[in-house]
Amino acid sequence: MIAANRVALVLLAAGQSTRFGSADKLTALLDAVPLGLQVARRLAPLRFVQRVAVIAAGSPDYRGLGFEIVVNDEPALGQARSIRLGVEAVGEAVDAALILLADMPRVTASHIEALLARYEEGADIVASSNGGIAMPPALFGRVHFESLCILAGDKGARALLDRATLISGPPAMLMDVDTQADLAEARRLSS
């Protein structure tokens, strides 16, 4: 188990949203709140030692929710660049980083608490799982920060997730919103 006050939350909010269409999906409303702020608000009660949001131009305002802002001025370089920027911003007193995607609006604090509870020195990568497939949110011990900072492309940290301890979650909670149809489904699930 690791306490939230030893963990940095790294929220990735700099994607290009190419499958969503011309609109910025993170500013699309879900329950009258921008989609990109949903998970940040859900996790507000958890006392992370640090909160970092990696954003692109036009992203919602995460400062009001206690996030330090890191701007990814080259989002076309893929998710790995956002991971690197976020992890590089993590302070020295942090023992682990929780990497979370801003387009996963239904992730709950209780699921994050389950990830934190499963973390231990021997299981220092703990990821969410949908049908046995490792996915974010994922918790990485400091020993993996260097590996996270040399990732390239849009596959994120998939190679590292192959050795993760997995915590299952319901598909509806772990959904990410990539398309307009995904947003419609998220709205349906919220009603």
UniProtKB/TrEMBL annotation:
Pfam families assigned: NTP_transf_3 (PF12804)
Signal peptide boundaries: none
InterPro entries registered for this protein in UniProt: MobA-like_NTP_Trfase, Nucleotide-diphossugar_trans
Keyword tags: Magnesium
Domain MobA-like NTP transferase, residue spans: 10-163
The name this protein goes by in its record: Nucleotidyltransferase family protein
Species: Sphingomonas abietis
